[in-house]
Amino acid sequence: MRVRSRDLTHSALWLALYVLLALYPLLWLAAVPSRNAASFREELASALGFLALSTMAMQFVLTARFEWLAPPFGTDLVYAFHRYVTAVALAFALLHPIVLLAPDAASIAGFLVPWDAPGSVAAGVVSLYALAILAVTSYARRALRIPYDAWRRLHGLAAATAVLFALWHAVAARRLLGAPIVRWLWIAWTLGWAALLLRVRLAKPLALLRRPYVVREVRPERGDAVSIVLDPHRHDGFRFRAGQFVWLTLGGSPFAAAEHPFSFSGSAQRAPRVELAVKAIGDFTRRVVATVKPGDRAYVDGPFGTMSVDAFPDADGYVFIAGGIGIAPCLSMIRTLADRGDSRPHVLVFATSEWDRTPFRDELPALARRLRLTVVHVLEKPPPGWTGETGHVTEELLARHAPRDGRRGYFLCGPPPMMDAIERALARLGVPLGDVHAERFHLA
Ligand SMILES: Cc1cc2nc3c(=O)[nH]c(=O)nc-3n(C[C@H](O)[C@H](O)[C@H](O)COP(=O)(O)OP(=O)(O)OC[C@H]3O[C@@H](n4cnc5c(N)ncnc54)[C@H](O)[C@@H]3O)c2cc1C
Fold first, then answer.
1. Ligand 1 pocket: which of 439, 441, 442, 443 to mutate (most atoms <8 Å of CB)?
2. For the segment 339-351, what is each residue's pLDDT rounded down to a tens digit?
3. Tens digits of per-residue pLDDT, 175-188?
4. In sequence order, which residues have a C-beta less than 8 Å from that of residue 80 and are 6 or more positions away?
5. CA gap 354, 383 in Å, rounded
6. What percent of the chain has pLDDT over 90?
7. 242 phi/psi in degrees, rounded to 5
8. Whose CA is nearest to atom 51 of ligand 1?
9. Ligand 1, closest atom to CA 278?
10. In terms of CATH architecture, what is 309-438?
């Protein structure tokens, strides 16, 4: 399998459309003559301000969970791109007043206190502060020890504040937005993007409310994990590809900002039944592992994600490389292949800390018998008498176990440092980039 030309064309078209939409203000500024004679510096400052507004507004499309947006990039890449664009928008927004006020640098300090500034300027300053808070808390959330759910609420609020106040600033400043038609077009354009926030926070939960799920079965797994089996309650559910993921809300209401992403761990052949494997690592997952029980209500938004054997059906076999609970999407793909009676040779390299904390270790031999699957366990702390692989998944270990003949699809899921190391190792082993597919469990 190589990077497909269809995927490349798809990616190139998306990027071209994105850049065109983001740069649209520049085209518009070039086309619309300024009403007042303005210097180059003032024109540049305006361009930077409008660029900040348009890049900020377009951020909402990246997180609006459009299923058609992620392929061929992958959800994790779309979210990473979203983070980088935040920094770009902040740079444009900071440069806007700096360029504008450059000849009178002393006045910049006066504008930093919004309540001392005139109304339209104050709105711009508030927007700049909101954007700065958004960028700092996104890049340094872990260092600042902000819990994810609290951060998500703050993120939505700061994003809406940054865009709405920037729009207010642009409209009130009247520069280039003097003509009512132009003004209303800009308002509609900006609010149109910003309204996508309502898709995730309002429209989606409303739709989910009508399509609840019921927990059918809960199975404790090794390593502080549980398997949860969910069935649609009085609706047909949805079909999915093995390896994809959903956003799960347990109990309560789908309006709570407490939905979390989890990969399917069950076979896609058994849809609409949904099976997930959840490992206890923080507040939400610990609560799930300790308290979820059959009969509980749940809401399942999905499917999302692009990592799947079904996206690469023409491979001669697959190599799954999982670390810890990263086994979940790999297990979904392996269970699906088993249910389909797949006859190609596959390999699973599964890294865990200890044998007794290795989830699904008891089920894997049965799956290996149903498929031509070789399972290679790699233990960080092996028990006495262990004769298998130990330590980390290295280039040398992969060279020994990953077959090099034919066209193989590689699927990776595990802790970020492990994934980074394996991606480098596979590249050194000459595996083409397009044959490697990864799901990262950290979107932010
Ligand atoms: C695409 C994807 C698939 C995943 N699949 C699985 C799986 O199959 N099994 C499994 O056990 N875990 C999976 N995870 C990880 C799981 O979502 C987190 O472990 C869980 O959300 C942690 O929440 P917490 O409150 O228990 O822990 P916290 O301590 O609050 O969070 C730990 C980390 O998890 C991430 N996280 C927390 N809440 C969210 C959220 N609402 N949305 C996005 N990320 C969040 C953040 O990076 C955070 O730093 C997946 C994550 C992603 C992105």
1. 441
2. 999 999 999 999 9
3. 767 778 878 888 89
4. none
5. 7
6. 59
7. -55, 130
8. 441
9. 11
10. 3-Layer(aba) Sandwich (3.40)
Predicted confidence band of residue 1 (pLDDT cuts 50, 70, 90): very low
List the residue whose alpha carbon is closest to atom 53 of ligand 1. 441
- Degrees to nearest 5, angle at CA 188 with 203 and 304: 35
Residues with CB under 6 A from ligand 1: 147-148, 245, 259-263, 277-279, 281-285, 305, 325, 328, 439, 441-444
| 208 has a pLDDT exceeding 70 | yes
Calculate Rg over the CA atoms of the chain. 25
C-alpha 247, offset from chain centre: 11
Q: Which CATH class is domain 212-304?
A: mainly beta
User: Following DSSP, what letter does each residue of 188-208 receive, concatenated?
Assistant: HHHHHHHTHHHIIIIIHHHHH
pLDDT at 2: 40
Tell me: the pLDDT tens digits for 8-42? 677 788 888 888 888 876 777 677 666 566 788 88
Average pLDDT of the segment spanning 133-153: 91
Which of 281, 286, 299 has most ligand 1 atoms within 8 Å of its beta carbon, as the pocket-test mutant?
Answer: 281
Q: How far is the CA of 127 from the centre of ligand 1 (A)?
A: 30
Q: Which residue has the higher pLDDT, 79 or 262?
A: 262
pTM exceeding the 0.85 threshold for the entire prediction: yes
Structure-block tokens of residue 255: 């309006």
CA of 279 to the centre of ligand 1 (A): 9
Q: Which residue's C-alpha comes closest to atom 15 of ligand 1?
A: 441
